[in-house]
Design goal:
Elements (H helix, E strand, L loop, with lengths): L1 H9 L3 E3 L5 H18 L3 E5 L6 H12 L3 E6 L9 E6 L1
Helix pairs in contact: 1-2, 2-3
């Protein structure tokens, strides 16, 4: 129980995957989603940047297929727009 409390406190609610390769980003995101389920976090953000959209596509593909993702959408334009995805868990 104490370990879970520590993990909950340590859970990163904003992850930055800019500059990662697609496979690295996908692996990190899958681990992060599993950790979110484990610690009961209902919302977090992924900073992927706008760029060419490669990371944005990796994020979208990974989130679409994860069974515990309720919904995901881009941040408001004034707070980063399409460079940031907000994830809501079930």
């Amino acid at each position: 129980k104490n370990d879970l409390l520590t993990r909950t406190k340590m859970f990163e609610r904003n992850i930055d995957i800019r500059g990662m390769r697609a496979n690295e980003a996908e692996e990190l995101l899958e681990k992060h989603l599993d950790e979110a389920v484990l610690v009961g976090v209902k919302e977090f953000q992924i900073l992927h940047g706008k760029g060419y959209g490669t990371l944005k596509q990796v994020v979208k593909k990974t989130l679409q297929w994860h069974p515990n993702v309720e919904e995901f959408y881009y941040e408001h334009v004034e707070r980063g727009g399409e460079g940031i995805t907000i994830v809501r868990m079930k």
